[in-house]
Design a protein that fits this description.
By secondary structure, the protein is of the alpha/beta class. 45% of the residues lie in helices and 14% in strands. α6 links the parallel β4 (117-122) and β5 (148-152). The longest helix is centred in the middle third of the chain and has 16 residues, at 126-141.
């Protein structure tokens, strides 16, 4: 289950998982929630009615996590969450260490003498929340006075790039404007580059842009996009291995 199929990060994970579990005779059903927690809940309920062997949920809604929806399901069904780790939620997690990558990216911009770094995120996601937390901590630790957070409604949709273009266009016309952009995924980073192109700004001479996920988009943009690699192949292999193990064991185990 994914919050959006246009975000190539999710698509790549799904494709890799499918390839791994096919070897063991399993097939997958792909569900797209569109980032809507109600739709997500409905789709999971339908999967349970169909008596699926296991469920992998990539970047689930915060509401369904906090309401313990997945905790209840994991008591009777093999379930894995792929997302930023939430230690309070008692489910099986496969998580990438986002903090290291994001701090490295922010340090990189800082060493390039950027002090006006804007942060772009989507709404309602544990990953977006974690990235914003790290961004704010970085600003505070380095005693930077500029702080700009741009939130768009659905960062995983095909419209994310256009939404970023519109909102960043406003930010770049402000009296104090950003000199660098940290975008929470590559789709949003492309929106930032397109906005610069429309305003006659050159990347990276006039504005530096860093994305996150390192999908193949990073290599086909012009200029090529600097992006944080979260290890799609590794995440996929671990998730595949763990869901197969969970489906074939009788005892109730929680792993992170």
């Amino acid at each position: 289950m994914v919050p959006g199929i246009t975000n190539l990060f999710f698509s790549a994970i799904v494709e890799n998982i499918e390839r791994e579990i096919k070897k063991e005779g399993y097939s997958i059903s792909l569900c797209n929630t569109g980032g809507d927690y109600k739709e997500e809940k409905k789709l999971v309920t339908n999967l349970l009615k169909r008596k699926v062997d296991g469920i992998i949920v990539i970047d689930p809604s915060q509401k369904n996590l906090k309401d313990r929806f997945y905790e209840e399901i994991s008591k009777s069904t093999a379930l894995i969450i792929i997302s930023a780790l939430n230690k309070d939620i008692k489910v099986n997690y496969v998580s990438y260490d986002e903090e290291i990558g994001i701090r490295e990216a922010l340090d990189y911009l800082y060493k390039l003498n950027h002090r006006n770094i804007a942060f772009i995120r989507g709404s309602q996601s544990a990953s977006y929340d974690l990235r914003e937390k790290i961004y704010k901590e970085f600003i505070k630790e380095n005693q930077i006075s500029y702080e700009k957070i741009i939130t768009i409604e659905n960062g995983n949709s095909i419209n994310a790039s256009f939404d970023v273009e519109m909102k960043l266009n406003e930010a770049l016309k402000e009296k104090v404007r950003p000199s660098a952009i940290f975008a929470s995924n590559d789709i949003m980073a492309v929106g930032a580059i397109n906005c610069c192109n429309n305003l006659g700004l050159t990347v990276p001479e006039d504005l530096s842009v860093i994305g996150c996920d390192n999908t193949f988009i990073a290599n086909i943009t012009s200029p090529k996009l600097t992006s944080i690699d979260l290890g799609i192949n590794s995440v996929s292999k671990v998730a595949s291995k763990e869901i197969l193990a969970l489906m074939n064991q009788k005892e109730d185990i929680r792993k992170k």
